[in-house]
Amino acid sequence: MSERIVLDARDIVVRYPGSPPVVAVDGVSLRIAAGETVALVGESGSGKSSVARAVAGIDKPAEGEIRFDGGAVSPLGMRRRERSLTAIQMVFQDPSTSLNPRRRVGDQVSDGIAAARARGLEGSRPEEWFERVGLDASWVSRFPHQFSGGQKQRIAIARALAARPHLLVADEPISALDASTQSSVAGLMRDLVAELGAGMLFISHDLAVVQRIADRTLVMYAGRVMESGDTAAMWAAPQHPYTRSLLAAIPKPDGAGRIPASPTAEERASWTAIPPITA
């Protein structure tokens, strides 16, 4: 039986106003299957978050096509979102800004439950989702300010997953957390998404975490995908010089090695995408 493709994005171009306009994403294509975690990595300004916002329907691409569960992804507007598109959920970088400080956290998780129920799925309770993300079920009546950063991100994840998404878009979801929490939260997301049979687009600059949780990885530079393929194969034998420079900069557990010198402007200007790695 063929795999179910939840996201099929082709030749996405995202431009922002300016003189001249800024091309943040320049012809990016990606596919995500149900149960698969695909990572998007690259330095700041490479276009990762712009891809995430386009895929989630927050920003409209200037060119290209984005299909979710076989249908077109329409950009968010003033009207209520199409019911089917509530199966796309997003977890943002800073949970302090994504959670409403004036509402009890249990009520905010209930928003996700309501989205799932509107699509005809069986109801659940906020307490169940709190337990699934490793929080005490009795905390549902608290407010966001009563939680640590890591706990708030777990609540944001619970809210997104309570909607029973087919696709979870996670835009730097661990970068605002302390080092001791990052790996556990990323692993939690991977496990729960796999349990739900959803796909996940995981955007991060933490390559050590990406190596542990991503099935496939796409490497972005200057709005384009330089290299893509099976994560383990890419880590074992990176093909593009930019990928090699990123992987070489990962700190070694024993402190061995050093961060390599940054590529020169001439080297960067010569970079072009290479064909995807065959797993």
UniProtKB/TrEMBL annotation:
Stretches the record annotates as Disordered: 259-279
An annotated GO BP: peptide transport
Sorted UniProt keywords: ATP-binding, Nucleotide-binding, Transport
Molecular function terms, GO-annotated: ATP binding; ATP hydrolysis activity
Highest taxon above the source species: Bacteria
Domain ABC transporter: 7-247
Gene3D superfamilies: P-loop containing nucleotide triphosphate hydrolases
Keyword presence, Kinase: no
A Pfam match: ABC_tran
Family: Belongs to the ABC transporter superfamily.
Official protein name in the record: ABC transporter ATP-binding protein
Organism: Labedella gwakjiensis
